[in-house]
Amino acid sequence: MVMLTPSEKAKERYTKSQEKEKKIEATILRHEAKKSKKMLKFTKDTGIEFGSSTANELRDRLFDTLSYEARFALGEIANIDEDIKSNHKKLQDQKQTTLKMYDQLSTWKKTEAVFDELPPIVLQFAEAYKQRCVSWLLEGAHHYGMAINRLREERKANPNMPFRDYTMKKAEVEKAFNADIRAVHGEYREDRMLAKAQEISEKNRISLLKMFAMRVKERCGTLVDAKGLRIGMNGELNGVVVGQKGAANVQTIAAGGYNIQCYHYRVLVQPIK
């Protein structure tokens, strides 16, 4: 399964939204052509011109003088008018969605442009963190599934267990596991579980890079030199960076890693005076 970057996903959503716009526009044109054809036939059959009147207005004004067939024809045209009106509303809503998708795409492109300026060692550090998150989520989902199965077996062995007791125990199990772990487990199929874990972990990777870039820029300005950074045996990124405003010590501290809190890093950047 190919894992798309957030920017690629945003572009895909933007493209799909544009395609929906085109489909709605094509539907409107199709309805308008159908309406025009039926109006011409009505005028040819009855000798009555529409002028500036709608089908409903014409039918209401001439109802008593029209044949059943003529009234039915006007009803069909009125229904097409409603379809056209409804699709114009859909088109406006879709245009707003497309605009929103474009804004999201622009935001991701700007974010990735910032990431492109980060040194390779930082990207390597973040990628390793992402893979660790994926493993943590999959392992957590496995343990969560086992805990739920044990609870179900307990209830099966004790059919007289009050439902209230079962739901309370189930709530305790859910409380013991992070919401992301439960979301991964909820996908059931292994390929979908992996895809969900990768999606969540990619967001974590992006957040880590944003945090690193923001804190370095706040403390020492635009990054100029990161040759002093090293990745330790435990995966932490530490060392010295140099920015336009001066140098700073960078320290990443690992935290979490249990069922409640995903393994993550605190990023500390202290200017060197």
**Biggest sheet strand line-up:** 1-2-3-4
Uncertain ranges: none
Structural class: alpha+beta
- Helices and strands, in order, run as HHHHHHHEEEE
Beta-strand residue percentage = 5-15%
Alpha carbon gyration radius: 31 Å
Q: What's the shape?
A: flat
Residue-averaged pLDDT = 89
The count of domains is: 2
Q: Report the biggest beta sheet as strand number plus sense, adding barrel if it closes.
A: 4 strands, antiparallel
Helix content: 55-70%
Total DSSP helices: 7
Distance between the termini: 49 Å
Number of strands: 4
Protein described:
With 273 residues, the chain is α+β, with helices and mostly antiparallel strands. The protein folds into 2 domains: 6-113; 117-271, no CATH class. Helices cover 68% and strands 12% of the residues. It is built from 7 helices and 4 strands; from the N terminus they run αααααααββββ. The chain has helices at 6-46, 55-62, 68-116, 120-157, 163-175, 179-185, 190-220; strands spanning 223-231, 237-243, 246-255, 264-271. A 4-stranded antiparallel β-sheet has the order 1-2-3-4, with helices on one face. α1 runs antiparallel to α3 and α4 runs antiparallel to α5 (163-175). It is flat and about 90 Å long. The chain starts with 5 loop residues before the first helix and ends with a strand. The model has no long low-confidence stretch (mean pLDDT 89).
